Amino acid sequence: MKDLLNEWIIFDEGRYLAERAILVKPDDTRAVMLVDTVVDIYNDRRGTRQLKGFATIANHLLVELLDDTDEIDLILDLTGPFKYRLPNPQIRSGKIFTPDVHSSLQFFPTQPWRQIAEDGFDAYLSRLQFL
């Protein structure tokens, strides 16, 4: 039986550079921009399509975003109509030593992403309060 979580991955195997990637609180108030975000699509040993990604983030901004809640979503703009919201991904990041340090961040889906309509996407982003 196919893993239902991964049937939503429509892309071929490969690495895709995100035009924009944003961690956002579920209530769409505060957000943090990620840089150098790459989405990696691959098949595991069972041949099941998988997704993981990595990016760079300013550590102090991640801490500030997580002050209110441990739940955050990831907005991915893979250009054109390929804009997605990945709800509550599993996030792994480097240890935080100094506020101005940037570190690597990895993300893994915990549930399928939802496509975001291209119309109004920029207006949605303009309403976010970026840290």
What does this protein structure show overall?
With 131 residues, this protein is mainly β. The protein has one domain: Pnp Oxidase, Chain A (Roll), CATH 2.30.110. It has two helices and ten strands. It has helices at residues 59-65, 121-127, and strands at residues 14-17, 20-24, 30-43, 49-58, 73-77, 83-86, 90-93, 102-108, 114-115, 129-130. Strands 1, 2, 3, 4, 5, 6, 7, 8, 9 and 10 form a ten-stranded mixed sheet that branches. Strand 3 and strand 4 form a beta hairpin. The termini are far apart. 19% of the residues are buried.
What is the element layout, followed by pairings?
Blueprint: E1 14-17, E2 20-24, E3 30-43, E4 49-58, H1 59-65, E5 73-77, E6 83-86, E7 90-93, E8 102-108, E9 114-115, H2 121-127, E10 129-130
Parallel strand pairs: 3-10
Antiparallel strand pairs: 1-3, 2-3, 2-5, 3-4, 4-8, 5-6, 6-9, 7-8
CATH architectural arrangement? Roll
On the 0 to 100 scale, the average pLDDT is: 88
- Cα(first) to Cα(last) distance is 43 Å
Number of strands: 10
Instruction: Characterize the biggest β-sheet.
Output: 10 strands, mixed
Keywords:
globular, mainly beta, Pnp Oxidase, Chain A, 11% helix, 131 residues, ten-stranded mixed β-sheet
